[in-house]
Amino acid sequence: MDIIEHTRPQVVWLGLTFDLSIILTSTAAAAIVFLIAYLTTRNPSVHVPKKAQNFMEWIIEFVKDIMNSSMGASNNLFVLSTGVTLMMYLFIANFMGIPFSIVTVEEQPVTWWKSPTADAHVTMTLAIMIIIYTHFIDIRTNGLKHYLLSFFKPFAALFPINLIEQFSTTLTLGLRLFGNIYAGEVMLALLASAVTHGIVNAFLAAVPMLIWQAFCLFIGAIQAYIFVTLTMVYISHRLI
Fold first, then answer.
1. Is residue 86 within 8 Å of 227, Cβ to Cβ?
2. Burial class (CB in 10 A: 0-12, 13-18, 19+), 4
3. Cβ pair 238, 134 in contact under 8 A
4. Is residue 87 part of a domain?
5. Alpha carbon distance 90, 223 (integer Å)
6. Residue 1 lies in a domain
7. pLDDT tens sequence across 186-201
8. Global confidence as pTM
């Protein structure tokens, strides 16, 4: 069964088309992040922290290290909270389609469950939000005048290039994440389809599928790290 032939569960409301699979998986990823954050930060201890608290503190320190290497500082709690949330969300969202997918078969296969970041709509929306966020931080920190003048630096003639850079940055940030996660899930779907074509094919596909799942876990973690790192780099550029 070819993944390209799968359709999406969509509904139209008020003239807008909503993909129910994206809504389902994105909401599930956000709920998991909220649950992890709640369970690891309730009843914190200064003297003898529990394992759950140590886990959250490790994530915070990890993002702080990214901020130090990208921005030269990690004391901005406004940016730190964004980085921690983004790291946790992407880490979970990138893995949701690796262990399994949910496909219903009616007139044609309908995919209900996959990694939300395997959809370009999700990754491009995240990228647009991050770029807008960096502009907001620039205005919030340096003022509107400094923000507007930054498009004319170092020379006024570079204004068109500086403007185009914002669009190209958004595209590369979103498409890089989408391409890696989508390609991994396409390969998993192809290996999974071989399982349904006889015992021999199932046996031959089992080991490559396990190896590819492990590789997808690695790629998902790397892509979450890259996305957060680039976010910090873009923020640091706006604060110059």
1. yes
2. exposed
3. yes
4. yes
5. 8
6. no
7. 777 777 666 665 566 6
8. 0.84
